Amino acid sequence: MTDKTIPRVVIVGAGFGGLNAARALAKADVQITVIDRKNFHTFQPLLYQVATAGLSPGEIAAPIRSIFRAHKNVEVLMAEVTGFDIAGRMVETPEGKIAYDYLIVAAGASHAYFGHDDWEPYAPGLKTVEDALEIRRRVLLAFELAERQTAAGDTSAPLNFVVVGGGPTGVELAGTLAEICRHALTHEFRSIDPARTHIVLIEGGPRVLAAYPDDLSRSALEQLNRLGVEVRTSTTVTQIEAGAVYAGSTRLPATVVLWAAGVAASPLGKKIGAPTDRAGRVLVQPDLSVPGHPELFVIGDLAALKDEKGKMLPGVAPVAIQQGRFVAKLISRELSNARAASVSHLSRPAFHYWDKGSLATIGRAAAVADFGKIHISGFMAWLAWLFVHIFFLIGFRNRILVFIQWAWSYFTYERGARLITGSTYLPGWTVDQRASSRSTDHASQEIHAASRK
Amino acid sequence: MTDKTIPRVVIVGAGFGGLNAARALAKADVQITVIDRKNFHTFQPLLYQVATAGLSPGEIAAPIRSIFRAHKNVEVLMAEVTGFDIAGRMVETPEGKIAYDYLIVAAGASHAYFGHDDWEPYAPGLKTVEDALEIRRRVLLAFELAERQTAAGDTSAPLNFVVVGGGPTGVELAGTLAEICRHALTHEFRSIDPARTHIVLIEGGPRVLAAYPDDLSRSALEQLNRLGVEVRTSTTVTQIEAGAVYAGSTRLPATVVLWAAGVAASPLGKKIGAPTDRAGRVLVQPDLSVPGHPELFVIGDLAALKDEKGKMLPGVAPVAIQQGRFVAKLISRELSNARAASVSHLSRPAFHYWDKGSLATIGRAAAVADFGKIHISGFMAWLAWLFVHIFFLIGFRNRILVFIQWAWSYFTYERGARLITGSTYLPGWTVDQRASSRSTDHASQEIHAASRK
Q1: Complex prediction ipTM
Q2: Are the beta carbons of B96 and A442 separated by less than 8 Å?
């Protein structure tokens, strides 16, 4: 299968950028190696649906090798890239080095705590399927613990959810949580009332969805308020501990804290050896290559590039997708030319991002859409959001499953994937589960006793 | 909501037995408390589909409180039952005691290693959603590691799966694994050939599916062989360690070992204080009550009861379902009588199991069905199995989703939920992942180097 005469393109990362680069290159006369730490591609825009029990992980993920089954020139390796030998044109993994003629690094970004890594155990972020399952576990467990504690006569059980960060992820998490409390969980508890859950969204800047035009930002705020979310803008989080978030010197009790505030580029960016910006993103040339290395491209969330107006391209899926396709086309063309005559890296075009608009969802029938001059809010924006997300989801099977679940949820208000798996411990819960199972303080009291007298 | 004048029935466990007892009782004038360690009911007959990446956990599980949403007299508590105060008629939990007038213990069974608990890390069993995800992780990871190691030029990567136990779970696991290797994964790997995976099923007794008639047992063996499974009957496993299973003194290399051999009743059985059998099951009266305690019932896998012919009732879903309904009816009737006149526990009927037949699936279009005088094998038995399992699945939404996925898998041979989440470590893998990421032994070699020379 492998042949030295056929050039090899190595792609690190199978997110939106890497996947689209590989797909666009797969028909060219090249050998492609796609390396990812995971065996599946995650459709990140729907991760919050997994975190809020609306979808199962299997429905928003696709095995990378299934995607490339028909392309015999694409090899998929599930491996951790540990570094690069740029001079020797090699990618380093624990099993060995992989030689390349062209390298596309699309390793993405993760959430960051801005020097407060100690907050992580109390405030999980949302970048991977594992993150989503952890958030789901905490949210669902909070209701179960509250029901249990209240049934035992202790009415002090807290139900305060705090979401830190008012970007698209924070807004959709806060909105969907509010929707669950008000609808999905009503009539299911006997001792607590989930609708009384207090949801706070904290944003450091003056408005939510800061990347959107002012009117849509205001509309998002109104839609959040209508769902019952308390939004605190221009508020800085100074400390997070078990059971509480500090906004300035104000202590906000928090049964569950979700982190949607910071993003940092993959550490692989720094290992390339090229200049990076403060967020760790590689400062790429207009053709997305690394200065001095026309054979090395960085795309997606890991790349820092400004558009014609001098504005930094946002870390969103459409940018990564277009960059992946751009680089693939560029490589294909150069390889064809190389076979015909000589190659020139000098005549490369610059990447141009075609912004088709932005969509952010807030909750059931609540969203905002920015199509340049046209701004839409509410139900129509939400429909546009649904359509786009089902359309771009990988795999026909996933599209059917997600469509059915959304239709089902829309008419029944139910959330299908409400499973608490793994640990049953929640940091900072007022009645510590581990302590109470050893002591007899609680075990000796009688549940329902109050109502018996 | 709670009122002392209305009697309280406490049900421990929301498996098939507990769930059906609660459902049948929900219309009676009683208060019901359902206690389970999990917040969801697991449809155990399809757990192997989660373990083999055919379905997602959310598709075979239903939140317990959703099931009882419409029944205001049913309270659901996610809690660990720690013991019983039988004399005081109380169930003990870490939060407190729960008083009952009637108690139904339906805590089920788990897998057991017959005194070899040290085998567990190397041979996970299949009783919970967490177990299923761990098995899925190991099976899928084995292929990924083998591909990686073979791409790096080391063709010694092992792919041997050993399933211990030839009952229904062992047979369906071995059959489905064979199906995956032969169909779902073909054309997806470039260095290994999944179809060459060696699958061994080890059974201590003389035949697989020992509970079935001899001809069906033989048919199952043939169907397994046709799928490429090597079946070793009358073979005792003497040792399991990282990477190997010992059958007598023969060492069988094993990349992944799955345990489907032993079942032990929940430890809660012993805490009731009544006599138990060797497997820890409570020896119940013909009316399923515990001797001397007409208010206390044990049902499902935790109960030991013989049928009219003196044969022990099997630990299968239909027995648990029928027992749950039987006990619910018995309690309802006694409570109605109690309001009219005096109660007599002496006139209780005996539980009678109505055996509608048994079904065991082996793989794609392969199954056996035992309907008393009628024995069916192959495609028709498999269709019967599909129909019954979709019909009994909890939740209309789950039924649609599972049906679609099965139809999809049947025509495309694909498995939808192929996600490796969590750790990327496999015990006993020949190239230890943790070691190799530290050493430079492997890191210095070149992947694809062989093909370049």
Answers
A1: 0.89
A2: yes
